[in-house]
Structures are given as C-alpha cells and as structure tokens.
Write a structure and sequence with these properties.
Elements: E1 33-38, H1 43-50, E2 55-60, E3 63-68, H2 70-78, E4 82-85, H3 110-123, E5 128-135, E6 141-147, E7 159-164, H4 172-186, H5 192-200, E8 202-206, H6 211-217, H7 275-286, E9 288-289, E10 292-293, E11 295-303, E12 307-310, H8 325-342, E13 345-348, H9 359-367, E14 370-376, H10 393-398, H11 401-410, H12 421-424
Parallel strand pairs: 7-8, 7-11, 11-14, 12-13
Antiparallel strand pairs: 1-3, 1-4, 2-3, 5-6, 6-8, 9-10, 12-14
C-alpha cells in the first residue's frame, strides 16, 4: 500500500462543546485531531494503535493516520511510534449555518438529499419507490429507495443493498447514493445493461443511515470530523456511537472497537443499541421470505482510501466459522473484479486492522449476504481526506459505475465468480 500524506480533521467547534466526550479538554483546540503515526507496518501493529480508541483513517507503508484525542496520541507514542500532529481543514463557516461551506455546495445536506429522493420517485414512479425504515435518534427519517421495474410488485428477484454514510464525516458516500439513484432510473430504457439489471434485480439504496451525524458535522458551515451518531450515552457526557462497530455479529469480540463512550470508535453499550443500526438491521431481516434472505449482495460505502474490502474484519484468518474457503474465494474474486474496474485496492478487511461489530461481518456472518466495503476517493489525505472539494463528485462517483453493475450482475449467484454456480446456485436435476 502507498504511504500517504493526510489533511487533518477539525476539532469540535466551540459552539457545540456540550457534545465533547467526557474528559475532553474544554478548549476545542485541544479536542480530537488527526495525527501521522510513523512506525506501524503490520496489521497487528495497526490493530494495537486502533485499540487505544483512535480511529485509523489511512494506512500507508510503515505509517497510519489516526483521529485521536491528545491522550490517545500520547498512548500511541508510548507504543514506540512517532506521532506528529497534522493541520486541520479551514473553518469556512458562519454562525447559524447548517450547510456545507459555499465552495462545497454541490454536496447534499439531508434536506437536499430528501428532495433528490422525492424527485426521483416522482419522475420514475414505475421504477422507484421510497420507504421509511425507521428514524434516527433525533427523529430524521431513515430512507430506503427501492429500484426495479414494476416497483410496486414484490418480485422474486435477487436483491442488492447499498448503504451510505454510516460515518458522518464521509459525505462523498451520500453523493454516491445520489449517483446511483439517477443512473439506475435515468439510464433505464437507454442503456441496455442498466435496463436488464433493473428488470431482473430489486435494488435497495439507503442513502444516509446516519443523518444526525451528517448534519452535526456541517453545523455552522464548518467541518468537525464527526464520525458517530449523536445519541447520548447514559451516565456520561460523551455523545455518540460508532455505527459501524454496533452490529450484532461478533460485537465487541476481538479488540476491534472501543468500550469507552468518549472514543471515536465506541461500540455502544450493546449490539444494535444505536437506533439507526437496529432499524436498518430490522429492515434487512424483513427481507427474509419463507426462511430465505432475498438480499444476496451488498456494498457499504465509506471514505477514504480507494479500497474494496470483504469479510471478515474480526479475525485475520481467511476462513472462520461461517466463512468457508469457497465463501472466501468468491468474495475475493468478486471484490477483485470490482476493483479492476475502479482502480481500488482489493483485500480482506482485517488486512488493514481488526474491527468488530461491522456491517460487513454482520451481513455475511448473520444473514449470508455477500458484502463489501468500498472506501472511496481519495487514496490519501493529499486528495482532501474526508473533505475533498465538490468538483470531484462527478468523476469519483461515476468511477464506481462498472463495479456496481458487476455486483448487480453477479447477485443471482456470487459463486459464479469462481465458476461454482452449479454447486451452489442451480437446482439439482429431478
């Protein structure tokens, strides 16, 4: 993997000090920031760094970039690594604003995203339908858009799930959802590949599963590098749970998340304790019909790093309970195929470092859904880190077009990627 230079995250704004974790400095200048950590060169060493409660934002050759408190940065230094504070993105906002800075206005706030969804459904009523699968802690709708021909019918078609913005600061993932909404409806009837796939698949797009966190991250027109949701944690002033450590498969099992509510990778007091995770998980479980999960494949979009990742994240082993050699090889083959189309690096999630309670481990381990994480643009902080300018949106969302269409194509039988469709997907002869 490449060594990268990273733009730093902004500490929490003074106006929102009530959201600072317990034990954090009152001065926002002393709040969480980003650090270049020179030294970690293996997955095991990177896992040690993550177990301080810091979030690993970027992995390079012999280095990582983390979002961490000052205390965590010192703890990482005590592991024998060199820790260097990085500058943060410019505060470009004004009081009272709840939107992106003007130069990034092509990004969609939650209200603007809702308008896109409503317009898509209104313009393509035979192809797209909006469902509300729950509400966030603050009461915002958790939206799912179903796309398929004759959308009002529950067809017996392979279903594919796309989830976006589990982590609040990863706004480019919402733009990926907007791109998919438009591509799969506007190109229908004109693009033969899109048309065939929409005719033969049921596609679910959840364009923002952490709307509270996303809105909080841009409150006052400045970026805060907020990752979690915004629910309070009982008995502490710390706010928020890391949604992608809160899923109910090997939750908290393996040192791949934090039990401290103040930490950016806090897994919550119990699996599915975050309302957003619980309700999205309930939606996925609702797609089980006659004992069979209808969703066969999924992508969870994140930023950044330009990676295609597959399970498991909670163990370094390729195979483990619930993951046979054929399961692993099919994930790897399909992941590599998608990476060949978008130029990302394909690898097992734990090749980076151990995580537990992630959506991808849950989707596969609990539901049997072939699942992938896409870490989108940029490859490193030099491209803007979590906050690339809005001019990159068209290129970096369309870059994933062929990868998404590939997943949709193989959704009828992901084992086709290793030539074992007869073994796994075809009914035996009478």
């Amino acid at each position: 993997m490449r060594t990268r230079t990273m733009l730093a995250a902004v500490p929490l704004a003074a106006l929102l000090l009530a959201h600072l974790p317990a034990g954090a400095a009152a001065d926002p200048a002393d709040g969480p920031g980003q650090y270049l950590v020179t030294g970690p060169d293996t997955a095991e060493e990177r896992t040690e760094v993550a177990r301080t409660g810091a979030a690993v934002d970027e992995v390079g050759d012999g280095s990582v970039v983390v979002t961490a408190s000052q205390e965590q940065a010192e703890e990482i230094g005590d592991l024998g690594h060199t820790v260097t504070a990085l500058p943060g993105p410019e505060d470009r906002g004004g009081a009272g604003v709840r939107d992106f800075p003007p130069e990034d206005s092509d990004y969609h706030s939650f209200a603007e995203l809702d308008e896109v969804v409503d317009a898509t459904v209104a313009d393509h009523p035979d192809l797209a339908a909006k469902e509300v699968v729950g509400t966030s802690h603050e009461g915002r709708e958790l939206i799912a858009v179903k796309i398929t021909s004759d959308v009002g019918t529950d067809h017996d078609r392979p279903e594919v799930l796309f989830t976006h913005s589990q982590h609040a600061r990863e706004h480019l993932t919402v733009e990926m959802a907007v791109y998919l909404l438009r591509t799969l409806t506007e190109d229908y009837g004109g693009d033969p590949e899109v048309t065939e796939l929409v005719d033969t698949r049921e596609i679910w797009i959840l364009p923002n599963v952490n709307p509270d966190g996303s809105e909080y991250d841009i409150a006052d027109g400045s970026y805060k590098s907020w990752r979690k949701n915004t629910q309070p944690n009982e008995g502490t002033s710390a706010i928020g749970t890391d949604l992608n450590r809160n899923w109910a498969y090997e939750w908290g099992c393996c040192g791949g998340s934090s039990g401290d509510p103040a930490d950016i990778t806090y897994r919550g007091p119990a699996a599915e304790s975050a309302p957003e995770v619980k309700q999205v998980a309930d939606f996925v479980r609702s797609r089980v019909v006659d004992g069979e999960q209808q969703i066969t494949a999924a992508i969870d979009f994140h930023t950044y790093g330009e990676l295609v990742l597959w399970p498991y994240g909670h163990t370094y082993d390729d195979t483990a309970p619930g993951m046979t050699r054929d399961d692993y090889e099919a994930h790897a083959a399909l992941g590599t195929m998608m990476a060949d189309s978008n130029g990302y690096t394909p690898q097992q999630s734990s090749d980076l470092y151990i995580t537990d309670g992630s959506i991808n481990d849950w989707l596969w381990g609990d539901q049997g859904i072939f699942s992938f994480t896409f870490e989108m643009f940029p490859s490193g902080g030099g491209g803007g880190g979590f906050y690339p300018g809005d001019e990159i949106i068209p290129e970096e969302t369309s870059r994933n077009r062929e990868a998404v269409l590939t997943l949709l194509d193989y959704a009828d039988c992901p084992y086709r990627a290793i030539g074992k469709e007869a073994e796994y997907c075809e009914a035996p002869a009478a």
